[in-house]
Write a structure and sequence with these properties.
870 residues; alpha/beta; MutS, DNA mismatch repair protein, Chain A, domain 3; 5 domains; seven-stranded mixed β-sheet; 30 helices; 44% helix; elongated
Length: 870
């Protein structure tokens, strides 16, 4: 039987032709006052937007699913679609329906994707929205990042671990990859980010080079310092190609590209970035480091702070330059207030000037741009007047753009509307013709009042009313009680319940005149505003430079406020290898403590000659992990150019920070906790350098006790004997590792002290020299509410374990514990008790988890209860 051909209406024929060009996008098709979606798009849109799914042509041969929303609600619904990972093609009417007798011309005017968005409702003010591209070369991977809303453009290349680190740092909303590289991309980088696959011809070196040269209008890429980044250039070219594909052709604000060099910033792998919870956490509602340290006022400052956090410096002079500014500003409360008051006036000039380039700026936003530039005037003066060279340099580089401000002031009304169609955008004094037309329009009310007075006298109708509507313009309304007084030359247009409406020749003439004036006013306003926006685009570079300088100043003033509020001190940076922190605190935890509870500060000292590895023992919950994390965060803050939560610190420059903190299954990739742990640790051991800081927490706990001890011992030995002598903090509950200090001279034992009370243990959270004697794990189990019989039994076994490291001896000793009340019944001649005895004796205690132990205990209990009932 032949397949039934689905009939197409002219509208659906047009829709299908446009949809065929954008098969991967959800097409919003403008029909009258609505954006409609059809077919599969409608099904998806209705679910994401929670709107009604209906049918077009229900029951007919042209039946198809339909879901839509009013066109003026686009800014409400578009962000929801994009945040759901959809690529959205916006198809608009390209001509006035009144001007055509056939179907209205339509076309896609913009393709909005997760990584390509200019809509304020999609973007977050203090977070960049990066589009990335990854290109797999023969030996190297190229990567590029572009925020189309700000014009920031970066390029880099390197091995997969370096590219992975950058992807974790920049957190792109969308990643472009060549279709043939889909498998290798997923193997290397997983599915953390929304990926879109392009044809492989887009990733060609000559095409990419040509695309970039055309964008920057240069003969070479040497001026940007990326001419040798072969793979990086290919990735960057793919991004610009994609912008063209998504109908983004106005890209004047993308004025340069910046190289990300591997050796210029502190190296942190993806595990470290995740473990330290710098700007995101796997735990809902968790407070991250950026939440605590972000005191920036402007959106540009907020975005730059995240980049500084992702890419801490390793150039001591650059860091000290930042610290000098923080030091200077911190001591002057008045100066902080003055800077911040002006920063509040600036708003997001970086994204505003991008809107100028893309011609998506509103009249009100142009006024905001002018006001922002006016706020820079006192900021520039304040910075230049200080006695700090770095601040003075920032100030002298700022451009107050006087010509631009004056032109905007002269052209626009200060209270210009968001939508130019609302009128009253252009200042009357700017255009003589506009002033004349506005006067004519304004005098209309007087004219109508006089006409009303005149007609009332002529007809004797005192209740006459002149008004207008969209159907037939101006009219005179007469109540039915007076309709017999209506003159013959009035033409009746509408009958209402209590009145009649008429028009006159005079009214029609007046209407033509007034409507002509209003249409002309609107046309002049639109023309003058467009000319202004095009003229402003000549100032993109100086405004972008101002934006970058304001962002830097905002971050540094924010650091000063942070230091003042939270009692942070200036770190001393050295070219040596020592890390000497006095009374260091965890910046996030100290802010989460209940009011009045002090944070217990700790000293940490590491070097490459005497105390290279600190072995920290102590019970769970005692604060071992916090000490590890706070050490890393203090180093990070210092190398960002911030003051630190410590009494004082001398920090030998660190080039790499590695952390292996906590166990996390990667079940989706088929990897156990232990496998993940070993992968992460292998990454550390294969990449350490003499300036690395290594933080290891509970390595080996994902396997059996003796396997774990062996692995932890071997890793510690490797770090000690490695030529780099990397500074290491190793937190462990394996007390056996304390013995290493007797053999390895640069390994020192410390413990997080606790105070034993009669029935419990008090965590003092203080790091002191010497190893911990035991773990207090049973105390923690008791605090967690473990049944008394389990606690009692655990204590018995622990006493035997402490006398022997041998699992065989331990098993024998457990067998001989026949004086224990719980086991005394094994001497009885009872088959059930013999069965229970066999169950317990054959248990492998070394590999038994607490949960399995409880389950086994429960099973034995059930067996006994069953016997009792019998």
């Amino acid at each position: 039987m032949a397949k039934k051909v689905k009939k197409e209406t002219p509208l659906m024929k047009q829709y299908n032709a446009i949809k065929a060009k954008y098969p991967d996008a959800l097409l919003l098709f403008r029909v009258g006052d609505f954006y409609e979606t059809f077919g599969e798009d409608a099904v998806r849109a209705s679910k994401i937007l929670d709107i009604i799914l209906t049918k077009r042509g229900a029951g007919s041969a042209t039946e198809t699913e339909l879901a839509g929303f009013p066109h003026h609600s686009l800014n409400t619904y578009l962000p929801k679609l994009v945040k759901a990972g959809e690529r959205v093609a916006i198809c608009d009417q390209l001509e006035d329906p009144k001007q055509t007798k056939t179907i209205v011309k339509r076309g896609v005017t913009e393709l909005v994707t997760p990584g390509v968005a200019l809509n304020d409702d999609i973007l977050h003010s203090k977070t960049n929205n990066f589009l990335a591209a990854v290109y797999f070369g023969i030996n190297t991977i190229g990567v590029s990042f572009l925020d189309v809303s700000t014009g920031e453009f970066f390029s880099a290349q390197g091995h997969s671990e370096y590219v992975d680190k950058l992807l974790q740092n920049f957190r792109p909303s969308e990643v472009l990859v060549a279709k043939p590289s889909r498998k290798i991309y997923n193997e290397n980088f997983g599915n953390d980010f929304h990926a879109f696959y392009l044809e492989d011809w887009v990733f060609q070196d000559d095409y990419a080079n040509e695309t970039l040269l055309k964008q920057f209008n240069t003969k070479s890429l040497k001026g940007f310092g990326i001419d040798d980044l072969y793979e990086g250039i290919v990735a960057s070219g793919a991004i610009l190609h994609y912008l063209g594909e998504t109908q983004h052709h106005k890209l004047q604000h993308i004025t340069s590209i910046q190289r990300l060099s591997k050796g210029e910033h502190v190296w942190m792998d993806r595990f470290t970035i995740k473990n330290l919870e710098l700007y995101q956490s796997t735990n809902q509602n968790a407070v991250t480091l950026v939440d605590v340290i972000d005191k920036t006022i402007s959106p540009m400052g907020g975005r730059l702070l995240k980049r500084w956090l992702a890419l801490p410096l390793i150039d001591k002079d650059q860091i000290n330059q930042r610290l000098d500014v923080v030091d200077y500003v911190k001591n002057d409360t008045v100066l902080i207030d003055k800077f911040q008051q002006q920063l509040k006036q600036i708003g997001d000039i970086e994204r505003l000037i991008s809107k100028v380039a893309t011609v998506k700026i509103s009249p009100r936003e142009v006024i905001q741009l002018k006001n922002a530039l006016e706020a820079i005037v006192p900021i520039k003066a304040l910075a230049i007047q200080t006695n700090n060279k770095a601040l003075q340099h920032l100030g002298t580089q700022m451009d107050v753009c006087e010509t631009l401000r004056e032109r905007i002031k002269a052209t626009l009304n200060e209270d210009a509307p968001v939508n130019i169609l609302k009128g009253n955008t252009i200042a009357s004094d700017f255009s003589a013709e506009l002033k004349e037309l506005r006067d004519l329009s304004a005098s209309g009310k007087d004219y109508l009042d006089k006409m009303l007075e005149r007609e009332s006298e002529r007809t004797g109708i005192t209740s006459l009313k002149i008004a207008s509507n969209n159907v037939f313009g101006y009219y005179i309304e007469v109540r039915h009680t007076h309709k017999d007084k209506v003159p013959e030359d009035w033409i009746r247009k509408q009958t209402l319940v209590s009145a009649e409406r008429y028009i006159t020749e005079e009214l029609k003439d007046y209407e033509a005149k007034i409507l002509g004036a209003e249409e002309r006013i609107l046309a002049i306003e639109q023309q003058l505003f467009t000319e202004l926006v095009i003229w402003i685009s000549e100032f993109i570079r100086p405004v972008q430079k101002n934006s970058a300088l304001i962002a830097q100043l905002d971050c540094l003033v924010g650091f000063a406020q942070l230091a003042k509020e939270h009692n942070y001190t200036r770190p001393t940076l050295s070219d040596g290898f020592e890390l000497d922190i006095k009374n260091g605190r965890h910046p996030v935890i100290e802010k989460q403590l209940p009011h009045g509870e002090p944070f217990i500060a700790n000293d940490v000292y590491l070097d490459r000659d005497e105390q290279q590895i600190i072995m920290i023992t102590g019970p769970n919950m005692s604060g071992k992990s916090a000490i590890l994390r706070q050490t890393a965060l203090i180093v990070l803050l210092a190398q960002m150019g911030s003051f630190i939560p410590a009494e004082k610190a001398t920090i030998g420059m660190v080039d790499k920070i590695f952390t292996r903190v906590g166990a996390s299954d990667n079940i989706s990739m088929g990897e156990s906790t232990f496998m993940v742990e070993m992968n992460e640790t292998a990454s550390i051991l294969n990449n350490i350098s003499e300036r690395s800081l290594v933080l290891l927490d509970e390595i080996g706990r994902g396997t059996s006790t003796y396997d774990g001890i062996s692995i932890a011992w071997a890793i510690s030995e490797y770090l000690h004997e490695h030529p780099s002598r990397a500074k290491t903090l190793f937190a462990t509950h394996y007390h056996e590792l304390n013995e290493m200090s007797e053999t390895f001279e640069r390994i020192k034992n410390f413990n997080v002290s606790v105070k034993e009370l009669k029935d419990t243990v008090l965590f003092l959270r203080k790091l002191v020299a010497g190893g911990s004697e035991h773990s207090f794990g049973i105390h923690v189990a008791k605090m967690a509410g473990m049944p008394q019989q389990v606690i009692h039994r655990a204590n018995k076994i622990l006493k035997q374990l402490e006398k022997s490291h041998s699992s065989e001896e331990l098993t024998n000793k457990v067998k001989t514990l026949d004086n224990d009340l719980q086991l005394s019944f094994f001497n009885l001649d009872d088959p059930l008790l013999e069965q229970i005895k066999d169950e317990i004796v054959t248990l492998d205690i070394d590999t038994l988890t607490p949960v399995e132990a409880l389950m086994k205990l429960n099973e034995i209990k059930r067996m006994l209860l069953k016997k009792k009932r019998a």
